[in-house]
Design goal:
Helix content is about 65%, strand content about 5%. The chain has about 600 residues and is mainly alpha-helical. Bound molecules: zinc ion.
Length: about 600
C-alpha cells in the first residue's frame, strides 16, 4: 500500500530488490546458458537431429525466460521512480550486461533461418519440435525475401547511415521542438493535452501554435520523410516485395486484400460516422462547425463524477463476471496478489500499460489512477491485456507472441464490457450522453482516423516512386485525406496542412497505423456477435481464442464465431456498432433539447 492507500505492485515474486543476491546469480546463469548454446550448437544447427535441435531450442527458451525476469524487473522497478538514480542505473547496467551475454545466442535464429526448407520440414515432423512451430515459422517468415549474406551485411551496416539515421534525426528534431502558449513553454506531448482542455480559448491557442511550429520545421520534415520512404523502396525492391505495404502485412500475418477491404469499408463510413458525430459535437460546443483542435474537446456540460478505487475494481470485475465468471477469476489475481501499481506519484511514468512475463511468472499492470471515468475504462483495458497474457502464457515463452492486429482484442473487449455496465448504471440522460460521446470520440480516433493516416501514407509511398515529393504536395495529400475523413462539420484550414509531420509512426514504422483500426473493428465485430447471442458458449470460445493468439492466425481464430474477415461485410459489422452509438446520441440529444 502507498500513502494514498491505493495498491502498489509487489515485485518480490521476481527479486526482493536491486540488492537481492539472486540478481547476480541470474545474470551469471543467463551468461552460462548462452555460452552453453554457442559451445554446443554454433555452426551445427543444419546437421542436428530433431532430439538435439529440440534441446537447443529449449536452452534458447530458458535463457529468454531468465532474461525476461531480469530485464522486466529492472524496468518495472524503475518506471515508478524515474527520479531514483540507483533504479535507473540498475536498469541500464542489467541491460548492458544482457546485451553483452546475449551476443553468444545471435547465431541461433540466423542458422534456423538458413536451414534448407526440406531440412526444416523434416525437423517439424518430430512431435516435440512441432510444438515450437508457431515460433519457428515466425523466425523464417522473411526467408523468401532474404538477400545474399554479404548484401544483408552491407544493408545492416548502411542502415546506420540511412534509414536509422533519418529516424534519429526526426526523433532528435521533434524532441527539441518548443511550443509557447501564453508565454509558457510546452513539449509535443503537453501541447496535445492543451487541445483537450475545457477552455476553448486555450485549445485554439494550442492548435495554432502547433500549426506554427510544424510549418517552421516543415522543410526539414519533408526531406526526412522523402528519404525514409525512398530508403524503404530501395530495400523493398531488392528483396522482391511487390508493394510498399507488403512487408508490414507479412509481419502482421494479414493479406493485402484484407487490409484494402478494411480501408474501403472505413472510408465508406466517414459520413455516417464522423460526419454525424461532429455535427452533434459542434452543437454541444455551441458552434456551427468545429475546429480540428476541438475534435477531442471535453463536453462543456460534462460533470466529472469521481470513482473510488474499490468502486472501480468492483465495477470492472462485475462487468467481467457477467460475461464470464472464469474471466473474473483470472482478473482477480491482479488485485489479490498485488500485480498492479495504481496511484500516480512523483517520478512515476505517465500513462498505463500491461507487461507480459513468461511462465512461471505472471504479468504486471501499471496505472495512474485518479478516479475519473476514463480511469475506470483504462483499468478495464489494461486488465483485459493482463487476462489475455495470463491465458496465453501456457504456449511457452517463444510461441506466445501475439501480432499487433490481435494484441488489443482482450483490452478493447474488456473496456466494452465495462462501458456497457457503466452505461446501464446511469439513469441521467445527460450523463449517458457524455459517456457515449466520449466512447464514440475514442472509437473514431482509432477506427477512422488511423485509416485516414493509412491512406495518407499509402498515397505518399505510391507517389514517391515517381520522384521526390515537394512539401506542398505532401501537405496537399494531408489536407485532402483529413477533409475527406473528418467531413464538412470540421474546419480543416490550410494552416493545419503541416500536421502530418507529428505522426511519428510514419517515420518509425511505415504502414503500422492500420493495425489500430484493424484491431478495433475486429473486436467490435466480435462484440456484435456476442450481443446477438448467436454463438453458443461464446464466453468459453472467447477465452480459448485468447489463449491461442500467438499460435494461430486471425482468420482461424475468428472461425468459431462465424466471422470471416475476407467477407466484405465483416468490417461493416464492427463499424455498425459505432453508428448505433451515434443513433443513441441523436436520440438523447433530441430528448435533452
Ligand atoms: Zn492496449
Amino acid at each position: 500500500m502507498t500513502k494514498s492507500n491505493l495498491p502498489a505492485w509487489d515485485l518480490t515474486d521476481l527479486y526482493s530488490g536491486i540488492d537481492d543476491p539472486q540478481v547476480a546469480k541470474d545474470l551469471e546463469q543467463y551468461n552460462k546458458l548462452n555460452q552453453k548454446l554457442a559451445d554446443g550448437y554454433k555452426g551445427k544447427i543444419a546437421k542436428l537431429e530433431p532430439k538435439n535441435f529440440l534441446a537447443a531450442v529449449k536452452l534458447y527458451e530458458q535463457a529468454g525466460i531468465v532474461a525476461s525476469k531480469l530485464g522486466i524487473f529492472a524496468y518495472l522497478n524503475m518506471v515508478t521512480q524515474m527520479n531514483n538514480q540507483k533504479a535507473v542505473a540498475f536498469y541500464q547496467n542489467i541491460n548492458e550486461k544482457m546485451t553483452e551475454y546475449g551476443k553468444n545466442a545471435i547465431f541461433f535464429t540466423l542458422e534456423i533461418n538458413a536451414l534448407p526448407e526440406a531440412k526444416f520440414k523434416a525437423l517439424l515432423k518430430d512431435k516435440d519440435v512441432a510444438f515450437y512451430k508457431p515460433w519457428l515459422s515466425k523466425v523464417r517468415l522473411f526467408k523468401p525475401y532474404e538477400l545474399a549474406e554479404d548484401m544483408e551485411a552491407l544493408l545492416a551496416d548502411k542502415a546506420l547511415t540511412s534509414s536509422a539515421a533519418w529516424v534519429r534525426l526526426y526523433d532528435e528534431t521533434s524532441a527539441k521542438l518548443k511550443y509557447v502558449v501564453d508565454g509558457k513553454e510546452y513539449n509535443d506531448a503537453e501541447i496535445g493535452k492543451l487541445m483537450q482542455d475545457k477552455d476553448p480559448v486555450l485549445r485554439e491557442k494550442a492548435g495554432k501554435e502547433l500549426n506554427r511550429v510544424q510549418k517552421e520545421n516543415g522543410e526539414l520534415f519533408t526531406f526526412i520523410y522523402n528519404m525514409i520512404v525512398k530508403d524503404k523502396a530501395i530495400s523493398d525492391e531488392k528483396r522482391g516485395f511487390k508493394s510498399p505495404i507488403a512487408s508490414r502485412n507479412l509481419d502482421n500475418m494479414v493479406e493485402d486484400e484484407v487490409v484494402e477491404a478494411l480501408a474501403k469499408a472505413v472510408q465508406a463510413k466517414y459520413k455516417s460516422i464522423a460526419g454525424r458525430f461532429y455535427k452533434l459535437k459542434a452543437k454541444w460546443l455551441g458552434k456551427d462547425k468545429i475546429q480540428y483542435w476541438d475534435r477531442n474537446a471535453p463536453l462543456p456540460f460534462a460533470d466529472d463524477k469521481a470513482y473510488g478505487w474499490k468502486e472501480s475494481v468492483d465495477l470492472v470485475l462485475n462487468a467481467y463476471n457477467e460475461f464470464s465468471p472464469k474471466l473474473r477469476q483470472v482478473a482477480e489475481n491482479f488485485f489479490s496478489h498485488n500485480w498492479i501499481d495504481v496511484p500516480p506519484r512523483k517520478g512515476k511514468r505517465s500513462g498505463a500499460f500491461a507487461m507480459p512475463m513468461p511462465s512461471p511468472y505472471h504479468p504486471y499492470l501499471m496505472l495512474n489512477f485518479v478516479g475519473k471515468q476514463n480511469d475506470v475504462l483504462t483499468l478495464a483495458h489494461e486488465l483485459g491485456h493482463g487476462c489475455h497474457m495470463c491465458l496465453s502464457i501456457k504456449q511457452g515463452d517463444l510461441n506466445d507472441d501475439t501480432p499487433l492486429t490481435l494484441a488489443e482484442v482482450a483490452s478493447v473487449f474488456g473496456e466494452m464490457l465495462t462501458f456497457q455496465s457503466l452505461l446501464r448504471n446511469l439513469d441521467d440522460d445527460k450523463a449517458k450522453l457524455c459517456l457515449i460521446a466520449s466512447k464514440v470520440n475514442d472509437m473514431i480516433n482509432t477506427s477512422l482516423r488511423q485509416i485516414a493516416f493509412h491512406i495518407f501514407e499509402t498515397k505518399v509511398h505510391a507517389e514517391r516512386k515517381k520522384g521526390e515529393l515537394s512539401q506542398e504536395r505532401i501537405c496537399e495529400i494531408w489536407l485532402e485525406v483529413m477533409r475527406e475523413s473528418l467531413g464538412d462539420e470540421v474546419i480543416v484550414d490550410d494552416d493545419s496542412k503541416y500536421i502530418w509531420s507529428i505522426v511519428s509512426h510514419f517515420y518509425h514504422s511505415p504502414f503500422y497505423v492500420y493495425a489500430y483500426s484493424f484491431a478495433d473493428c475486429l473486436v467490435n465485430s466480435l462484440y456484435q456477435v456476442y450481443r446477438e447471442n448467436s454463438v453458443p458458449d461464446f464466453a468459453n470460445k472467447y477465452l480459448t481464442m485468447l489463449s491461442e493468439t500467438g499460435v494461430k492466425r486471425y482468420d482461424e481464430l475468428l472461425k468459431p464465431f462465424g466471422l470471416d474477415a475476407h467477407d466484405a461485410s465483416f468490417w461493416d459489422k464492427g463499424l455498425g456498432l459505432i453508428e448505433e452509438y451515434i443513433d443513441q446520441l441523436e436520440v438523447l440529444d433530441k430528448k435533452l433539447g
